[in-house]
Design brief:
Three copies of one chain form a homotrimer.
Chain A lengths: L1 H23 L4 H23 L5 H4 L2 H15 L8 H25 L4 H22 L13 H14 L6 H21 L13
Helix pairs in contact in A: 1-2, 1-4, 1-5, 2-4, 2-6, 5-6, 5-7, 5-8, 6-7, 7-8
Chain lengths: 203, 203, 203
């Protein structure tokens, strides 16, 4: 139940982030819905395609479509108030990537993949919805340019494979991983830590 | 036979719309061909990937590749005359999305998906070729910004699931759905109806 | 062994080309890695998805991830010296597309596809890593705009299906195809041959 609530909160947060980017581009109603939709389920869809898990997850469970549709309607109606909840949204979004990272890793383990591939799948699940959102809106994906985001997912993933070697139940490693991803992202934003940008020093 | 002719006309119309966008971007011969190709088969390809229907359809039937290649050659040779057939093209394109919507819904039903997912698949089949075309040409997809297009597909899809509850043969619902999609699109363009664009009213 | 060395050289060349494009866009460390990664494995991934060969190849063999990661670190450390090896890189890249074209064709044959689809798969394997790289960096893909690149792959693919009708071992056609792709690309660049750009002559 707790797991389910977090999952839905993550979807809502991702969908709202899609609505906000789409509104900045002045898209029409359908465009806003599609951007919200791909932001929320794009990462999981790419994960399912890569491991051959088809029909992809959101086609098998109608709850996702309805939650996203509801979120879009709500966000558009209250669009002038969205800025007041920006902080809560950031928190949902951060909880979302923590959870999605772990969900992706689990799928990778079930598919019998190596740890490094599981970590890649976790990162894809958490981050590529945002990447597809930015491509559809004709922007270079924001996670390639700034902010610790994917890096938090990768560090969480590495932690998981270290933690599960400890003589405790796997559930502890599971929860710890989610908290590590969330913690790294919160600290990075709080202290304005980001990855170095790379460019040539001589022309 | 009739079905087949419509299918080919739809592909031709989509391919020509790809050629016209690619020419505006002054792409080279290969670029024009690829854009025409993804416009014509992109929606169906994404549908096949999402439901795990691989190899995707156009890889199993060579007719698509040859029709598209022929259309590209024809369009380039007669590129200065294309504007005179713009109205016919619009009609083919509209017939194409009507047909593709129904084709996508059928695939969804065969894959045992819920109605809402079948409607999504129908809309993806009809619309995402154009979305991929616009992304490859570095534009925000036109269907996110203006025109009733995806909306016609969605309304047609909803109609199909209402109509098939009636005590008639499924073939009637099938044909009616195609006509509904075409009708909505024609009326929307005729009366310049479009979805509202969404943006924040306060800064 | 020889085959393996060429494969790795191709990956390294593609990854470095990704790093260079990503640096021009001043992406951060994660962005540079992802761009290098998709450039190197994007074409093969799309091929695997289209024919339903999942989990996709790079998820089954960890060597690819490590080679790409090593290449990215190396390229960033020596980024100011990269221009001195530009010529060698061009050669690796050209060898890479020759090899990838043939790899794609082989996958198509194994999947029982028609020759024209095998050629398409070979071209996709060789070229679409670069296409995805350019889309992620918000550019119209370079291979749609200039240079003989995909054309060399297509001509090589056609040659393969002609050559294997000759009464020799298939291995000769295999090697000849790779050399033909490489030869066409080298000649095209040497003599500045490119495909005509297509645009309307009247407004």
């Amino acid at each position: 139940m707790f797991y389910f609530v977090i999952d839905i909160l993550g979807i809502v947060a991702f969908a709202i982030s899609g609505v906000m980017v789409a509104m900045d581009k002045k898209l029409d109603l359908f465009g806003v819905f599609i951007i919200a939709f791909v932001t929320a389920i794009g990462g999981g869809t790419l994960r399912d395609l890569l491991i051959g898990n088809t029909p992809v997850l959101w086609m098998q469970e109608s709850i996702y479509v309805y939650v996203i549709a509801g979120t879009v309607v709500f966000s558009i109606v209250f669009r002038d108030q969205l800025k007041y909840v920006r902080k809560s949204l950031f928190l949902f979004d951060t909880i979302g990537i923590g959870l999605y990272t772990m969900v992706g890793i689990s799928h990778g383990l079930n598919a019998g993949l190596l740890p490094v591939m599981c970590i890649a799948l976790g990162t894809i699940t958490a981050c590529f919805g945002g990447v597809i959102r930015d491509i559809l809106c004709n922007e270079i994906p924001v996670i390639f340019r700034k902010e610790i985001y994917a890096t938090a997912c990768i560090m969480g993933g590495v932690s998981y494979f270290l933690l599960r070697k400890l003589p405790y139940d796997d559930a502890y490693a599971f929860v710890a991983t989610i908290l590590i991803v969330i913690g790294i992202r919160l600290l990075a934003v709080r202290f304005k830590i980001s990855l170095p940008n790379i460019y040539r020093s001589v022309k």
